[in-house]
Amino acid sequence: MSTNYEPVIGLEVHAQLLTASKIFCGCSTRFGEPPNYNTCPVCMGFPGVLPVLNKRVVEFAIRLGLATHCEIARYSRFARKNYFYPDLPKGYQISQYELPLCEHGFLDIDVGEGKKRIRLTRIHMEEDAGKNIHDVRGDYSLVDLNRTGVPLLEIVSEPDIRSSAEAGSYLRSLRAILQYLEVSDGNMEEGSFRCDANVSVRPLGAQEFGTKVEIKNLNSFKAVEKAIDSEIERQIETLSDGGKLVQETRLWDADREVTRSMRSKEFAHDYRYFPDPDLLPLAVDEKWIDEIRAALPELPAAREDRFVSEYGLPRYDAQVLTVRRDIAEYFETAVTIHRNPKAISNWVMGDIFRVIKERKLDDSLHIAEWPVSAEHLAAMIKMIDEGKISGKIAKTLFSEMLASGAAPEAIVREKGLEQVSDTASIEAAIDHVLAANAKAVADYRGGNEKSFGFFVGQVMKATRGKASPQVVNELLKKKLSV
Ligand code: ADP
Ligand code: ZN
Ligand code: MG
């Protein structure tokens, strides 16, 4: 790929909010109900009904706005975005347009060793549309309006992103903040965190932006990163061949790993935005904003800094552990019980992350629900630190805990995994090993000291890994030198 071009990327994210009810009616937002169960005349768009704004949606939007350093508009407005589609019964979506609630924020994302600031253009509130269901019967489609009116925040970035890796980092940071704020669950596979990517390229050093393409149908972090890379390559190839790019919307085809054209600019929608006359302009007062600000939880960046200063963790560990609120809390709970932060971090980032990956739990898992509780992990590490079990046995123990969810003390007792430090039984094992390997003993005494490791291995095997390695080493040295 030619390096004479620089990619320019801006992301538009839709986050579904964790409110109990919809944005303009009292219907439940619960997921997985039978089709059209969570509906009423308002969200089905019957004539003559009036929307009533859910205050909690505004609170959530302000929460995110404050957490991302936005200016919160004291006066904002809802607008109608007009288009026709069967999943949109009113014929328009209520959104915000020329006066959004939040503007001019930023997010500092991790890039390699440092941070990079990505500016946010705006965050506004809007309602979700319903869902068309195809191919369940006959040659017609059905419409499910359960999702119609579910509250969303649209978060629009400035075109400050320069690579697919930065885009991934931006999305992870944004999702972490949403999760910390308990504003959205950020689940990409289930569609509560959706992203459209705007991509263009320009000759290195150019001031002007190139023609941009908007990519849709991205439903995982991997898809976003791959689609951006593939689109950058396509654009550079087109330009290098002397071709021209057209402004258009393209769809990501995850199977073939290419983007393909959906509609070009000439066919772009004209949404005929205008202020919604059914809703009053939104005025939020200072006092309420202050209350929301005062109640903000500790955010990922602050927690990362605190993990370094309070627990002496390396920056890398602190960064990895704070990307998810549930994992950060799991770590801290364990540290409160047994204060060995680095050991706990190693177990979380090593064995626990490995299992999460293996079981493909990255997106859906809440760590509080998984079999090895923070209390049990802390208890296990405490047993290692106190010399009750060896590090090797701990690996076996961890698998047992994972399988059964039982407390480590109980498993150790039941399976007889305690580390053996009493010299008598270890001596017996050593005597046995030395007697069985007379030739090796003679070699060792004749100067072949490299075989020491062999004896250690044999003794550990004879004690089924339970002997304290320290005691084994000491006793062996003594016995072999006689
Ligand atoms: P539109 O009018 O098509 O909605 P906007 O200017 O509102 O476009 O921008 C939508 C998104 O596209 C924003 O995230 C913005 O940062 C991004 N964007 C705008 N211009 C470009 C460009 N030339 N290249 C890449 N992204 C862009
Ligand atoms: Zn309703
Ligand atoms: Mg726009």
Compose a concise summary of this entry.
By secondary structure, this protein is an alpha+beta fold. It is built from 15 helices and 16 strands.
Number of domains: 3
Measured as a percent range, the helix fraction is 25-40%
Number of β-strand runs? 16
Query: Which percent range describes the beta-strand content?
Result: 15-25%
Instruction: Give, in spatial order, the strands making up the sheet with the most strands.
Output: 2-6-7-10-1-11-12-13-14
Question: What characterizes the major β-sheet?
Answer: 9 strands, mixed
Small molecules bound = adenosine-5'-diphosphate, zinc ion, magnesium ion
Distance between the termini: 69 Å
- Number of distinct helices: 15
Query: Which ranges are low-confidence, i.e. pLDDT below 50, for 5 or more consecutive residues?
Result: none
| General form | elongated
Mean pLDDT across residues = 91
Radius of gyration: 30 Å
By secondary-structure content and strand pairing, the structural class works out as alpha+beta
Primary descriptors:
482 residues; alpha+beta; Arc Repressor Mutant, subunit A; 3 domains; 9-stranded mixed sheet; 15 helices; 16 strands; elongated; binds adenosine-5'-diphosphate; binds zinc ion; binds magnesium ion
Model description:
The chain has 482 residues and is an alpha+beta fold. It has 3 domains: 5-290, no CATH class; 298-415, no CATH class; 423-481, Orthogonal Bundle (Arc Repressor Mutant, subunit A), CATH 1.10.10. Helices cover 39% and strands 19% of the residues. It has helices spanning 55-67, 164-180, 221-240, 286-294, 300-311, 315-322, 325-337, 341-358, 374-385, 391-404, 408-415, 423-436, 438-445, 452-462, 469-481, and strands at 5-16, 71-72, 75-76, 79-82, 92-95, 102-111, 114-127, 131-133, 142-144, 151-157, 193-203, 213-216, 248-253, 258-264, 274-275, 282-283. It is elongated, with a radius of gyration of 30 Å. The model has no long low-confidence stretch (mean pLDDT 91). Zinc ion binds next to loops.
